[in-house]
Design goal:
mainly beta; 7-stranded mixed sheet; 5-stranded antiparallel sheet; 8% helix; 23% strand; globular; binds 2-acetamido-2-deoxy-beta-D-glucopyranose; DUF1996 domain-containing protein; signal; DUF1996
Length: 337
């Protein structure tokens, strides 16, 4: 079945199932990374962050309860005080300077400033039944998918489903590539981050923020593949969609000879360093209830807020560096390699 979430978002069909899809405005864009570089200000590269406003340079799991410490969230569901973040895409101009690429709201979420669209699924996106049971994350749970140091395709194959879509328009959802698109994308570039879906059932985190989770041992999450014995607990699949508004940077000359002009804030011009971080912060058992409920896209058991309210939730800039001029160097002076 060819699936188009644009059709879903427009309410063309609405089966009973447990799939959450919701918009989150940008909470902040700064060089902080409380998961990989806790306490470091600034961290290695620039991130764009969504979710609860307890986000900070240091968020030790023993003392930092996101759900208790946040007083607002940039997400539509107000019980979601989690944080989610990815690196940031820059355009590298002909004179070698860098300009931060803005983010774009998706159809039906117009007015959302920056941010991403978040999904929690119990089965593949195109599986309208969404019948499987999953175990929601526990307070203190964190994880990272992807590797900021990766620069080649073979390395990137370790990750399933960290992809790009060259958007012709708002509805484009295929094909997906694992490197940056190599032609101008009239509707922007969508970066997709799907997290692993099997948990060891014990550790809320691990030294590399990855070993406590795993992919299904055979097949995929989408095909209902079983979790390995080492990581037997089936989690919801989180998918983050970020649409980078590249429309102002679509000069065909920049795409000549197999080149393309975009770089991640890591300095990566291949796209293979794509990564995303998650810190669980849903209130009480609201996420489990939502996963167990039979809802699709809208979730009546969850409290929602308006886009205007989402846009108001911010955290202050704690780094104090210019990220918006035409920059001689990427923030952190990361070399383009
Ligand atoms: C971030 O942490 C610092 C140090 O603990 C604290 O002073 C500050 O208020 C926190 N900022 C926010 C926005 O919570
Ligand atoms: C580089 O190009 C951009 C876009 O044309 C321009 O705004 C900027 O001033 C240029 N910077 C330098 C140092 O020439």
């Amino acid at each position: 079945m060819k699936f188009n979430i644009f059709a879903v978002a427009s309410g063309l069909f609405a089966p009973a199932s447990a799939l959450l899809r919701f918009g989150c405005s940008g909470l902040t864009v700064q060089r902080l990374d409380p998961l990989v570089n806790p306490g470091m200000n600034p961290s290695a590269h620039l991130h764009q962050i969504i979710g609860g406003n307890s986000f900070n340079a240091s968020m030790p799991p023993e003392t930092h309860d996101l759900a208790a410490l946040s007083t607002c969230t940039s997400c539509q569901f107000t019980e979601d005080l989690s944080n989610y973040w990815t690196a940031v895409i820059f355009y590298r101009g002909k004179n070698g300077t860098f300009k931060r690429v803005p983010q774009m709201a998706q159809a039906g979420m117009e007015g959302t400033q920056g941010g991403m669209v978040v999904y929690y699924m119990t089965d593949a996106l195109f599986d309208t039944a969404q019948k499987s049971t999953v175990t929601a994350f526990k307070p203190g749970f964190r994880m990272l998918v992807g590797d900021a140091t990766y620069r080649d395709r073979e390395q990137a194959r370790k990750w399933r489903q960290l992809t790009y879509i060259c958007m012709e328009n708002q509805g484009t959802r295929a094909p997906e590539t694992i490197g940056f698109p190599t032609k101008p994308c009239p509707g922007g570039i969508m970066a997709n981050h799907r997290f692993p879906t099997c948990w060891d059932g014990k550790n809320l985190d691990s030294p590399n923020h990855q070993d406590h989770v795993a992919y299904p041992e055979s097949g995929t999450f989408e095909s209902g593949g079983p979790c390995p014995a080492t990581h037997p607990v089936r989690l919801p699949q989180i998918l983050l969609e970020t649409v980078w508004d590249t429309r102002a940077f679509n000069d065909p000359a920049d795409f000549a000879n197999g080149k393309q002009p975009f770089v991640w804030s890591t300095g990566d011009q291949t796209g293979y360093s794509s990564h995303a971080d998650y810190m669980f912060g849903w209130k009480d058992n609201s996420l489990q209830k939502a996963m167990d409920g039979h809802t699709y896209v809208s979730a009546p058991m969850l409290k929602t807020q308006s886009i205007a309210q989402q846009n108001k939730c911010k955290v202050p800039d704690m780094v104090g560096e210019d990220i918006d001029s035409w920059l001689t160097n990427l923030p952190g002076a990361n070399p383009v390699v």
